[in-house]
Amino acid sequence: MKTALVKQSKEIIGLALVAIFIYFFIFWDYKTFQDQFTLPKEWLNLNTIFLSIVIEAIPFILLGVFVSSLIQVFVTEEMVKKSIPKNMIVAVIPAALLGIIFPVCECAIVPVARRLIKKGMPLHVAFVFLAAAPILNPVVAASTYFAFQTNPSMLVGRMVLAFIVAIIIGLVIYLVFKNSDQLKVTKEELVGAQEQGPQTLKVNKLKATLYHASDEFFDMGKYLIIGAFIASLFQTFLDRSILVTVGSNEFTSPIVLMIFAFVVSLCSEADAFVAASLGSTFAPGALLAFLVYGPMLDMKNTILLFGYFKTKFVLAFMFIVTVAVYAGVILYQMFVM
Q: What is the pTM of this model?
């Protein structure tokens, strides 16, 4: 009874919001409002950045939840377990290489990794895939190549470093957490489990996929909006001249661009062009830190991770990624560049 009441109230609120939107869209005189009330330039800029992040991320979120739903409906636990090497250490290598044939950016990777874990994939293997796939895919490789046509070593450095760092992340997670359950069970999943009951009728698999995709999309949407808003706040009010000043040293500049990558929350398909524009200010090592760290960890996917995984695990993952990327970049600068 309570569940039905909650559902009904949600539907009423949704319809009310749609009605308000239609009313303002048809009858609201925006020009008169703009003449009478003007927002500060910074807040208009914030609005533009927020919308650009959300609009850029939504297609990839849709892709992610659709792939997640396909896994839920068509992939069984037995299929997942059979596809993973028995040796838990060796399993991290194919997990990292999976990104080459599975072009998913960091906006879409969280629901996919979460679903694979729910289907039986070991925690550390799923997080190797989560870290590697947004970088080691053909779309990102192509965008990095075109952004750094005058310096092809950036493409090689990005791919090699991402592969090695992703494997290190997976091994550390395995040593610390083994294959413990770090997933949160959301309220929506609990409600769905109660409603489903033991005698749920089998539905058409296509319909089931669409149902799962729509539920997961609206569930993830709130985390995307929160992450995009926080990222847009930082982009609007953070003084970037401070970053440039601090980033002149070869040891501090990677940290500066890692912070910058986390804050600006770009999709991995587009971040190479931003990195190329910073080439005259920052050293190649710092640019590599930006290109590797951002797709693995940014404001958007951090909010999603906190929404679906236990807090202590997410904090540990953030620490592991940060240390691994920074150490990898420093060593790469010392021995390769």
A: 0.74
- What are 309's strand-pairing partners? 183
Q: Who's near 69: CB < 8 A, 6+ residues apart?
A: 115, 208, 209, 210, 211, 212, 213, 216
186-200: per-residue pLDDT in tens?
555 545 444 444 444
Which residues pair with residue 2 across a beta bridge? none
| Burial class, 281, CB count within 10 angstroms (exposed 0-12 / middle 13-18 / buried 19+) | middle
Domain boundaries, the chain: 40-335
DSSP structure string for 187-215: HHHHHHHHHH-TTPPP--HHHHHHHHHHH
Q: What are phi and psi of 169, to 5 degrees?
A: -60, -45
Q: Tens digits of per-residue pLDDT, 217-271?
A: 776 666 667 767 776 776 677 666 766 676 667 888 899 889 988 987 777 777 8
**What values do phi and psi take at 184, rounded to 5?**
-90, 145
Q: Which residues contact 113 (CB under 8 A, 6 or more apart)?
A: 126, 127, 129, 130
- Which tokens go with 184? 């949160």
User: Sign of torsion, CA 31 37 41 43?
Assistant: negative
Burial class (CB in 10 A: 0-12, 13-18, 19+), 297: buried
